[in-house]
Specification:
heterodimer, A: 153 residues, alpha+beta, 24% helix, B: 107 residues, Arc Repressor Mutant, subunit A, three-stranded antiparallel beta sheet, 62% helix
């Protein structure tokens, strides 16, 4: 089955573009990214903090059933334009990965369709490639952890 | 040594990527490959060694010469490396869509 999400990672560049079209208006996709209860529902992690304002900060966390933290990330939000775009920094704690810069753009296709473009800038080409390889690595990936929980559950 | 066998480490270098492009169309000897670059022969040999160690290139003796040719299976591994990442985001965004569809219905 073809994936709806496209990831563009040009060779030798320290950036990544992730694009996805949604069968939803831009306002709802924006909401899904800025309202803590909603973020929790689709990202599958706890939102410890999320201040949807300029210079506001955020913290996401995932624990396993034993209470061990599997994933924790934080950052600040910048240049928020409602239903249009925002910028955030992203730091994955306890991994040694440098902080990345993420540009989110919510593009309107029609009243009921929209497109999300995530443009991620890494510290170096090597860092980017390392991140891309991460889904191969065990344990660190929250979506996979969640998937495992559901399967095991 | 572990790093060297990592295909991703191998393709992080532009000269090595150029070598892969060169041999993609035809098997070549180390000499023929080196002649395509301004860099010194030992440098090219080193690159060939790294590419061979991580199995992107395979050596094949042909008479007195050794020919390097591309290992397409290993190349495929690289081509596929974005896939798990893409799949991950796809799963996540599918979830977003269903969560928000629900939300839309309720509001």
């Amino acid at each position: 089955m073809e994936l709806k999400t496209k990831v563009y990672a040009e060779d030798g560049q320290q950036e990544l573009r992730i694009e996805r079209e949604f069968d939803l208006p831009t306002s709802l996709v924006f909401k899904a990214h800025t309202e803590p209860e909603l973020i929790e529902q689709w990202m599958g992690n706890k939102v410890l903090k999320f201040e949807a304002k300029n210079h506001g900060s955020w913290i996401f966390e995932t624990k396993n059933p034993e209470g061990v933290v599997l994933f924790r990330a934080n950052g600040v939000l910048l240049n928020i334009k409602e239903n249009e775009s925002f910028v955030r920094t992203f730091e994955m704690e306890n991994t040694g990965f440098p902080i990345q810069l993420e540009f989110f753009e919510f593009q309107k296709i029609s009243e009921t369709k929209s497109k999300l473009v995530m443009h991620i800038i890494y510290k170096s080409v090597e860092q980017r490639d390392q991140i891309l390889k991460m889904p191969f690595a065990k344990g660190i990936n929250m979506a996979h952890n969640r998937l495992e929980e559901i399967i095991k559950g | 040594m572990d790093l060297r066998r990592d295909v991703f480490q191998a393709i992080a270098d532009p000269t090595r990527r150029a070598i892969l492009l060169l041999v993609a169309t035809q098997s070549m000897t180390a000499g023929a490959i080196a002649s395509q670059f301004d860099t010194k022969r030992p440098t090219v040999s080193k690159h060939l060694q790294i590419l061979t160690e991580c199995e992107l290139l395979k050596k094949e003796p042909n008479g007195r010469e050794i020919y390097y040719h591309l290992n397409p299976n290993k190349m495929k591994e690289i081509a596929n490396f974005i896939e798990p990442f893409q799949k991950l985001w796809d799963d996540r965004f599918n979830k977003l869509e269903s969560v928000m569809k629900n939300y839309q219905k309720k509001n």
